[in-house]
Amino acid sequence: MKCVICKHGSTDAGLVSVTLVRGKTVVVFKEVPAQVCPNCGEYYLEVDVSKKLMERASAAVNAGTEVEIVLYAA
Where are the domains of the chain? Predict the structure, then answer.
């Protein structure tokens, strides 16, 4: 797909780190599958991947976690 940010790059499959912050909780997901623009670095996640990240981040918030670093597992 064409990158909607830079409008020059076409995305390729890759792995990214995603940081989610809610209140006092920070969750960093490493090696998340995404479509990545080689020109500007913008990334796009599939709906099922986004849902999984949000569920894990919500669990961290509910547990009162301050910082969590997670290796994404499909």
Answer: 12-71
DSSP per residue, 12-65: EEEEEEEEEEETTEEEEEEEEEEEE-TTT--EE--HHHHHHHHHHHHHHHHTT-
Q: Locate tokens 């990545």: which residue?
A: 36
| Domain 12-71: assigned CATH number | 3.10.20
Residue with the two structure tokens 């547990």 = 63
As given in the structure block, the two tokens for residue 59 are: 């669990």
What's the whole-model pTM score? 0.88
- Interstrand relation of 67-71 and 12-22 (parallel, antiparallel or unpaired): unpaired
The per-residue pLDDT for range 33-70, each reduced to its tens digit, is: 999 999 999 999 999 999 999 999 999 999 999 999 99
Query: Using CA atoms, how far apart are residues 56 and 18, in angstroms rounded to an integer?
Result: 12
